[in-house]
Amino acid sequence: PTEPANPLLRRRPTRPPPPLAMEPAAMDRIAARLSAVDGLYFPTAFLRTSPPPETRKSALLDLLSRDAPLFLERYGAALRPDELAPFDALRDDYEVGWHLHRLVTQGDYFSEEAMREREPYLHHEYLGRFQDPFGRAMVRPGEKFSETLMRRAEEAVIVEKIRGEQIRRGVDPSEWVGGPVERPMMGQ
C-alpha cells in the first residue's frame, strides 16, 4: 500500500511505550528495610523458622521487580510515605494506582494518633499544645480499665519523647509539655 500524500495522514512507526520501572536503589532500600521487620508475612511463613534477612530481602526484591501490585497488596501497609513515592513511576499501571490510592486515602497513616506516635514533638508543636492535655487521660465510654491503663502508659511514653526533644532543643522548662519537672531539694 502507498502512503498518503498528506504528511499528517501518514502512519508513524509505533514504538512500544517505555517500560514502567522504579529506581533500583529505591527498590533495594524498601526491600532491605522490610526484610528486617519482624512478623512480616512471607508465603513460607508456615515453616517453623523464619527465613534469614538476606533470603527475605531477595524474595521481596524479586516480588517487587516481578509484580509490584502484589507487593503493594501484601506489604503496602508496612511502607512509609517516603517509600510510597518511588511507586509513582508505576502509577499508570491500574493496579498499582489503585493500591497507592487505597494506601493514602484509607490508611491510618495520616490519622492524628498515627502522626502523634510517629513524630510526637512535631504533633505537639502544631496541634497538641492547643488541645486539652487532660482529655487524653480521661476514661473513654465503653473502655475497659486495662485499656485505660495501657493508653495512659503509652501516653506517658509519648510525653517523655516530647519532653526529651524539648530538652534537646533548649525549650524553656516553663513551656515543657506537662509543665516543668519538680526535682527534690537536696540537703533538707
What does this structure look like?
- The longest helix is centred in the last third of the chain and has 25 residues.
- The protein is mostly helical.
- The protein has two domains: 83 residues, no CATH class; 64 residues, no CATH class.
- Pfam families: CCD97-like_C.
- It comes from Aegilops tauschii subsp. strangulata.
- This is CCD97-like C-terminal domain-containing protein.
- InterPro entries: CCD97-like_C, Ccdc97-like.
For the termini, the CA-CA separation is 107 Å
Portion of residues in beta strands equals: under 5%
Instruction: Kindly state the percentage of residues in helix.
Output: 40-55%
> Can you give the mean pLDDT?
80
The H-and-E topology, N to C, reads as: HHHHHHHH
Count of distinct structural domains = 2
Number of strands: 0
Q: Number of helical segments? A: 8
| CA-based shape | elongated
- Estimated radius of gyration: 26 Å
Structural class call reads mainly alpha
State the major sheet: none
Unreliable spans: none
Compile the SSE list and pairings.
Layout: H1 24-35, H2 53-66, H3 68-75, H4 81-84, H5 94-106, H6 112-118, H7 120-126, H8 145-169
Helix pairs in contact: 1-2, 2-3, 3-5, 6-7
